[in-house]
Amino acid sequence: MTDQNTDDTDTTVIPATGGTPGTDATGDPTGTHPMKPSRKRIVAAAVAVVLVLAGMGGGIALWRHQQAVEREALELAQARTRCAKTADARRLAQNEWQALVDGDAAAMAKTDKASVKDTGTLDKLGKELDAKAPAVTACTGGMASQVDAKTRHVSGETAWYRRHTASLTKAVKAVETSILDKTVADGQALLTSSEGKVADEATRTALRQAVDKRDATAIRQATGNVRASMKAKQVADEAAARAKAEAEAAAAAAAAQAQAQAQARRSSGTTTRRATGQSTTRRQSGTTGGNRTYTQPNNGSGSGSSSSTGNSSNSGTSSSSGGQSGCDSTGCWFGGTFYPSTVNPNCTPGHTGLCPIG
């Protein structure tokens, strides 16, 4: 007889073969002892449990792997972000350094050594410009650790640009200061050398004020004005010197001319010639006599007289002026003309008659 209990477990009641009536062989009441599960069912249950546990382990492992992948991807993204920010900072530092190299530093490097007080500043600037910039590192890598290593390189490059920008700026300022020092020194030297040599003293006053203020622009402007004023005074002084020399030369020429004229007057002068005939008496007595006398006094006047014994007499006096006048044994000068002496036959000894003067 088969009964079904409340938990749906099938049991089989075996008729008693002995023992106490109403009980089975184990002594349990008949119909109350369940039958043990079969081996297959136990194995199946165990396999099912193992499969469940294995599935659960695989799922956990897969989950953990997925979590690791996601974590690594996140870390890589974060590393790349950090590297990108560092690269941006490097780019700014690089641009600032490059602008300085191409701008103020390049301009200062062209400064002539004669324009600076300390030429060593130009040498230092040249060394700074010769510095070699580092190679640019890219933010590449498939792992966060690789990208972080690149970030460290980029940070080093950023530091190089910032450091060299500072040192290059210092070198540029040193050259600028040296130029100003030279400008001030030159202005002071010009103040000293221009004293008393400018047409307008106000130009030197302006230069002195600019030098005291160390104002390079004002010094350059005032220097130009002082030099122009010095040139103006030089031109004026040269013109005055020429005028003075010309006046002195004219005065000397006039004096020389006056002296020459005076000398000429002393040499030729104005001569007054006077010829005086005392009296001449001519008598026809058969005896004649005559004499002729010429004298040349120091004042350039001449006189002559002649006398003769006869029935007639003649006297006369004459004078002339102009040119050299006078007589000697060879002849006479009258009005600048020389008349040589000749023998008058009428005045020979034994001759009777007139014997003219001359």
Automatic annotation (TrEMBL):
<keyword id="KW-1133">Transmembrane helix</keyword>
<feature type="transmembrane region" description="Helical">
    <location>
        <begin position="42"/>
        <end position="63"/>
    </location>
</feature>
<feature type="region of interest" description="Disordered">
    <location>
        <begin position="260"/>
        <end position="325"/>
    </location>
</feature>
<protein>
    <submittedName>
        <fullName>Colicin transporter</fullName>
    </submittedName>
</protein>
<feature type="compositionally biased region" description="Low complexity">
    <location>
        <begin position="298"/>
        <end position="325"/>
    </location>
</feature>
<feature type="compositionally biased region" description="Acidic residues">
    <location>
        <begin position="1"/>
        <end position="10"/>
    </location>
</feature>
<feature type="compositionally biased region" description="Low complexity">
    <location>
        <begin position="11"/>
        <end position="32"/>
    </location>
</feature>
<keyword id="KW-0812">Transmembrane</keyword>
<keyword id="KW-0472">Membrane</keyword>
<feature type="compositionally biased region" description="Low complexity">
    <location>
        <begin position="260"/>
        <end position="286"/>
    </location>
</feature>
<feature type="region of interest" description="Disordered">
    <location>
        <begin position="1"/>
        <end position="36"/>
    </location>
</feature>
